């Protein structure tokens, strides 16, 4: 009787020690509360994970547990695109994180993804957001190294949060995430990493340079933003993929320069290129007042949320709460100036050749 009791006691103590050890690993990254944050019951974590200690390179992450029953919910990694744009600033605080800045405070986002999942936002590669490299030559790395660094980050993150290692895992992203997401998934499959990867999802992805960029002309024309004549120029005289290539090489031809000026002139300054149905954030109070006086209904979408996020994440008290710091830069920015688009998308061809199949929500995607 006593031996059974002692055995049970040892098991219970070992369990408590194990749980305590797990909690102590990530306790330093736990966020007590963000400045201006409404009261919530879910836990938040943020901090740096070293990718290369010798070269002093580290990635910054922000992690929010699911609003309810986090132990039964999957883990979702979110990667913004650019390349060079912040998953924390754009993804978490502008799009689908639990909060959005509004003035000096945070307000609840009723469309937050953490209502259905535990969500991990990663600023990658080094040079994006708070992520850094003391050696700035690593700010010009390509897609292959980015995928390798992202895998290193995940391995170390799972060591810090081992309770999520067997959880259903999804990699998601948008824009240039059309490169980052499948490349990382491909590397996980190749490396046979012991993650419970279930699927990937990418929204509005950049997959193939010519096809994706050259669709811009038809999109603008079909929405009445450019004239028939300008559409002809934008498709036959100089298309958008040509303009992007020339711009990156610092050698815009007179013809392409004329076309992009014509397009920009017809679109004007008051169209949001990411959502042409939205208003834009006006720069001065007088301009805002002038427009708002003409509105009958209060706008349902805060078109200035990106501007407010920049102000919020540059506050010292916010950076302290996030366990963040600026390294080699004077301020946090939404998108880094260090990155340019590569001119091809070889990874997609590689994945097609390997014919890897991932299941997403019971549908098979190749």
TrEMBL record:
Q: What is its EC number?
A: 3.4.16.-
Q: What's the protein here called? A: Carboxypeptidase
Q: Cellular component terms, GO, for this chain's entry?
A: extracellular region; vacuole
Q: Which organism is it from?
A: Olea europaea subsp. europaea
Q: Which UniProt keywords apply?
A: Carboxypeptidase, Hydrolase, Protease, Secreted, Signal
Which Gene Ontology biological process is one annotated for this entry?
Answer: proteolysis
The domain of life for this entry's organism is Eukaryota
**Stated family:** Belongs to the peptidase S10 family.
Any signal peptide, and if so, which residues? 1-21
Identify the PROSITE patterns for this entry.
Answer: CARBOXYPEPT_SER_SER
Does the keyword Phosphoprotein feature in the UniProt annotation?
no
């Amino acid at each position: 009787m006593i031996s059974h009791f002692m055995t049970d006691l040892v098991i219970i103590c070992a369990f408590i020690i194990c749980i305590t050890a797990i909690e102590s690993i990530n306790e330093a990254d736990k966020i007590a509360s963000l400045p201006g944050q409404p009261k919530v019951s879910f836990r938040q974590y943020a901090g740096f994970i070293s990718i290369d200690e010798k070269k002093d390179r580290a990635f910054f992450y922000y992690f929010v547990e699911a609003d309810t029953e986090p132990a039964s919910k999957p883990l979702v990694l979110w990667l913004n695109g650019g390349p060079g744009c912040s998953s924390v600033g754009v993804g978490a605080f502008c799009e689908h994180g639990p909060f959005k800045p509004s003035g000096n405070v945070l307000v609840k986002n009723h469309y937050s993804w953490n209502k259905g999942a535990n969500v991990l936002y990663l600023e990658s590669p080094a040079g994006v957001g708070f992520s850094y490299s003391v050696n700035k030559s690593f700010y010009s790395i390509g897609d292959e190294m980015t995928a390798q660094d992202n895998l290193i980050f995940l391995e170390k993150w799972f060591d810090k949060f081992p309770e999520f290692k067997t959880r259903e895992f999804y990699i998601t992203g948008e824009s240039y995430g059309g490169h980052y997401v499948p490349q990382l998934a491909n590397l996980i499959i190749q490396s046979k990493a012991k993650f419970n990867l279930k699927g990937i999802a990418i929204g509005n992805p950049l997959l193939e340079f010519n096809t994706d960029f050259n669709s811009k002309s038809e999109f603008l024309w079909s929405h009445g933003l450019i004239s028939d004549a300008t559409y002809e120029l934008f498709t036959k005289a100089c298309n958008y993929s040509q303009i992007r290539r020339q711009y990156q090489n610092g050698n815009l031809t007179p013809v392409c320069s004329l076309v992009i000026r014509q397009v920009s002139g017809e679109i004007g300054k008051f169209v949001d290129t990411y959502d042409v149905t939205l208003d834009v954030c006006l720069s001065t109070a007088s301009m805002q007042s002038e427009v708002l006086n003409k509105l009958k209904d209060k706008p349902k979408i805060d078109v200035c949320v990106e501007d407010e996020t920049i102000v919020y994440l540059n506050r010292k008290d916010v950076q302290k709460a996030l366990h963040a710091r600026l390294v080699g830069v004077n301020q946090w920015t939404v998108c880094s100036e260090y990155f340019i688009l590569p001119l091809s998308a070889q990874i997609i061809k590689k994945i097609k050749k390997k014919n890897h199949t991932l299941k997403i929500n019971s549908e098979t995607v190749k």
